[in-house]
Write a structure and sequence with these properties.
The protein is 41% helix and 15% strand. By secondary structure, the chain is of the alpha/beta class. The chain has a 5-stranded mixed sheet with strand order 5-4-1-6-7. A hairpin with a 5-residue loop joins β4 and β5. α11 packs across α12. The chain is elongated, with a radius of gyration of 29 Å.
Length: 354
């Protein structure tokens, strides 16, 4: 089991600070690891097991345990290094403050070279600063926040249908995937200059037309009714819905979840002819509430992306084949929405400077 690290006293305030650092997404990763080491030692965890859990060496555990026992919280910091003094004093703060300013004229964003020119440091030093703080200038993420004033009520209505639908009711998630292109191109596997084998696609291709796909997901079973069309007009939508509800009992409640696309609106005459059907619309900019989007994503990855089709007939057949296989193992989705924390969408560079 290995010898246990010698325990030492720790104030409540220091423990709370160590736990905060160990959970932090903005602290330097070295500081996070050191906080976890001290917490493990305080809890009496065996030095060897603690090193294995944290992916480090027992000598590292011993080093920081000794530093902390001697210096307290200051022991988590790097010791002054001997030799030539650092050339760039305050470089990290300069880089972070520069990132808060508009990029140079002619550029949409900062990069390592432009930062080095403005700050007056080597590009390698700039990248060292960015790497330590986990800043990736070339990567990007997007987010969408609904501004619908009725967001809470609409979202609760739809989620309620997922979690506790009315007795004997049929809940359908409906949408269309428009303008799916039938592209023909050479595909295969190629070897890169680094020796890796990857999926290859010829950069040139031929367009062979497009198809529109209507789909209705049975939320309770995962089964999908679909129809491919040349157009996606309101007439096409209503004709598809006729097929979807055709086999349902006249007295069965049918709840249809839709986004706010124009084709889904102004269908009052159709709804009057089908009094057992109720449309539920997602909040604006929140189509992710519609489970059919999950299925479209799977369809795209499994059957459409990186494929080659010589005609729209081949494209339609590929969609048919995917649906047949899907229905062999159809299952309902367990719908979840990951919580978006405020720190994920507010300016994190400012957080690093605090």
């Amino acid at each position: 089991m290995g010898r246990r690290a010698r325990q030492f006293s720790l104030s409540d305030a220091d423990r709370a600070e160590l736990e905060r650092i160990s959970r932090s997404r903005t602290e330097a990763k070295q500081r996070v690891e050191r906080a976890k080491i001290i917490l493990g030692c305080i809890d009496g965890e065996a030095q060897k097991l603690l090193a294995e859990r944290l992916g480090t060496r027992p000598t590292t555990i011993s080093k920081w345990r000794g530093r902390f026992a001697k210096l307290g919280m200051k022991g988590l910091e790097d010791a002054p290094r001997s030799g030539k003094p650092k050339r760039y004093i305050g470089l990290r703060e300069k880089v972070l403050k520069t990132l808060e300013t508009p990029p140079p004229k002619g550029q949409a964003r900062w990069d390592g070279l432009s930062l080095a020119d403005v700050v007056g440091a080597k590009k390698s030093s700039i990248y060292n600063v960015l790497r330590k703080d986990g800043i990736h200038l070339h990567r990007k993420r997007s987010w969408c926040v609904s501004t619908d004033p009725e967001f809470a009520a609409k979202a609760a209505d739809i989620i309620g249908l997922y979690l506790q639908p009315p007795t004997r009711a049929l809940v359908l998630s409906v949408d269309e995937k428009p303008s799916i292109q039938a592209l023909s191109r050479t595909t295969g596997y190629v070897q890169t200059s680094s020796g890796k084998i990857v999926r290859g696609l010829k950069s040139t291709y031929r367009r062979n037309g497009t198809l529109n796909l209507f789909a209705a997901l049975n939320v309770a079973t995962g089964e999908v009714v679909k129809k491919t069309t040349k157009t996606k007009t309101r007439v096409d939508f209503q004709a598809f819905m006729d097929e979807v509800v055709r086999d349902a009992a006249a007295d069965q409640e049918i709840h249809v979840i839709l986004d706010n696309y124009a084709t889904h609106k102004k269908n009052g005459d159709w709804l009057k002819a089908h009094p057992n059907v109720t449309f539920h619309f997602t909040p604006t900019s929140a189509s992710w509430l519609n489970q059919i989007e999950i299925w479209f994503g799977i369809l795209g990855r499994k059957a459409l992306s990186d494929s080659s089709f010589n005609s729209t007939q081949e494209l339609a057949q590929a969609i048919d084949d995917f649906c047949k296989v899907w229905h062999e193992h159809a299952h309902p989705f367990v719908w979840r929405k990951r919580e978006v924390r405020g720190s994920q969408i507010r300016n994190t560079i400012v957080n690093l400077l605090e």
